[in-house]
Amino acid sequence: MLIRFAFLAYFSYFTNSHSFAQEPGNASELPALTVMGQETANQRPVTTYETPISNLEFDPRVDMQVRNITEAQGDISIRGGTFEETGVQVGSITILDPQTGHYNTELLMAPEMLGEPKVLTGADNAISGFNSNAGTVSYSWSEITKGGSLTIGGGDHNLNFQRLHHALTGAYGNSKDWTWGAEIEASRSESDGTIPFGDHSFDRTSGRIQLLGPDSQTDLFAGYQDKFYGWPGMYSTKGKYYETEDYQIRLFNFNHLQNYNEGHFEVSGFYKRLSDHFILDRKNPPIYHYDARHQSLVHGFAISGKHNLNKNFSLNHFAQYTYDKMDKSKVIGGYLEKPTWNLKNGDFTDRQYYKISLVPEYRHALGDEEEITLKAGASWDDTNRDKQRLSPIAEISWTRIENEKRSENIYLSYSESTQVLGYGAIGGPTNSGTFRSTRDLRRSVSKNLETGYKITRNKWKLNTAIFHRWDDDLVDWTYDIDWETYRKANHVDITTFGLEIIASREWANLEAIGSYAYLEKNEDYSDSSIWGSFYALNYPEHRATFGLIWNPSDSIEVRIDNEWRQQRENIIRVIQGSPSQNTSSHFAASYYPKGFKDLELFVAYEKPWEKGFQEIPGIAPKGDQFSFGLTYNW
């Protein structure tokens, strides 16, 4: 790791002309206020280096359910859906994990390589989401900007982290319209954790090359990450077990975005290999209760876009093919290998997925600034292991656009989507062990009806939505009276009603964003022995967020994120004395000293105010974290 950092530092030094020298009279400018383009005040985490999912726990559009820290294992829930129902997309392709949705958020890209995340729900998710019913978190590839940064930081609990990023750009040959870019990044982090046996050690390396033309952008990406983290009762809910995850990921991506006279399209491909080692109890290494090693691979390609047939008619299209394989799986219990406990006991160990969406669109102008848009089409999902399904998609909307800072939109949509589950749910043991599968899990179907209103003005914006979702044959991890011994993948039918309100406002030196969300669920497990759920019924009935960015002077910036929630009552929380309400805060401040060009000094503090609140039922709650450091940009 140190050799890699030294090499990158050497490379960065000889490819830019900036220095750390003090320059009297040259004050650095503060970063632009950006709440109007993002949903949280903070982007840098308190507990480690930055990742694409950092600080999403304060994003009003998603609900993060965390083990250890967000960057260790952060499950994303959208509108009360489970982490398995949520897709993560880069470019036009959804990158899934064959073993479990817990690893769906393992994106190895440096934050500079991606744009701000969009959250696709309703008709948008039905068109371009893939194997995701509740929604999709979608990232675009950014244009490479010449320059770089070095971050060094630390904090309590023996936290220390370092990050180095550097990018080059230049003209492609003698062309005035084409440019090339290359960037590389290395990050590492380690900590003892906010509670005993809650430590982590992360190491990420990523790189990208880019060719940028007047109407196109092509990106090639490669990344490697080695992660270790521990947490008491991380999956088992038994605090006496000091569980650990240790895995390595290799990820390769290709992406090409093309604009043309009649529209645009985007082609994406990826290859991902994950090697995982899970230990149920590291306190007594010679006598593991459960020691599991798995290796999976997945790759695929996708194309999406919009083709304008004429000024009124367009065709929205999407297609994705993915192949996955549970390559290796070995489980040891009490010194002995347990062949019936591994994840290759199902009816198959590899699968091919297919999806095609075709949604024609008609636009009718009501004037120079207003139009009505009608969309109606369908998506087709199939695998070589499951039954196929055709899902309808329809939306009607009214839009007024006066300029880029004054617009309104009202929409009504109905859509259906479908999903099949990975090998953790279908390939493991069915009647023994801690994690029990069900062989004959059916394809789940989600039906979503929603309406919403969006308005943007020069200094403020407001987004609202009301939705009703019917999940049939949703797969959930449930427990019964013997909840401390095992959990099992089971079907459930759930209806969800929800309301979302997100608003932001900008002043001269202040920006604020606030939100409120309400969720109500009714469930039917068709099994009276089931006591409850770890995921599908782990949701906030009421949730509010509030973020603030304040610049009290030319050289000081303060960022604050807060979240309050009223979680649905869960019997495990009741038994273990965990409260159902919680407030969390993330405070950060940056100082940009006059006379030192591009230098930032920062401090940050993250605090859950209810010390005993369990984000996931039975999982040990996290503690406070303080950190500080500096970033030098060039």
- Stretches where pLDDT is under 50 for at least 5 consecutive residues are 17-36
Strand content: over 45%
Number of strand segments: 31
Using the alpha-carbon principal axes, give the shape: globular
Give the N-terminus to C-terminus distance in angstroms: 23 Å
3D architecture notes:
The structure is a single chain. This protein has four helices and 31 strands. The chain has a 22-stranded antiparallel barrel. The protein is mainly β and 634 residues long. Helices cover 5% and strands 56% of the residues. It has helices at residues 2-13, 122-128, 423-426, 571-576, and strands at 63-67, 73-77, 86-90, 93-94, 118-120, 135-139, 147-155, 159-171, 179-191, 200-212, 216-232, 242-260, 263-279, 291-308, 313-333, 336-337, 350-365, 370-383, 389-403, 406-419, 435-436, 444-456, 460-479, 487-506, 510-524, 532-533, 540-553, 556-567, 581-591, 599-608, 625-633.
Task: Give the topology, please.
Elements: H1 2-13, E1 63-67, E2 73-77, E3 86-90, E4 93-94, E5 118-120, H2 122-128, E6 135-139, E7 147-155, E8 159-171, E9 179-191, E10 200-212, E11 216-232, E12 242-260, E13 263-279, E14 291-308, E15 313-333, E16 336-337, E17 350-365, E18 370-383, E19 389-403, E20 406-419, H3 423-426, E21 435-436, E22 444-456, E23 460-479, E24 487-506, E25 510-524, E26 532-533, E27 540-553, E28 556-567, H4 571-576, E29 581-591, E30 599-608, E31 625-633
Parallel strand pairs: 3-6, 21-24
Antiparallel strand pairs: 1-2, 3-4, 5-6, 7-8, 7-31, 8-9, 9-10, 10-11, 11-12, 12-13, 13-14, 14-15, 15-16, 15-17, 17-18, 18-19, 19-20, 20-22, 22-23, 23-24, 23-26, 24-25, 25-27, 27-28, 28-29, 29-30, 30-31
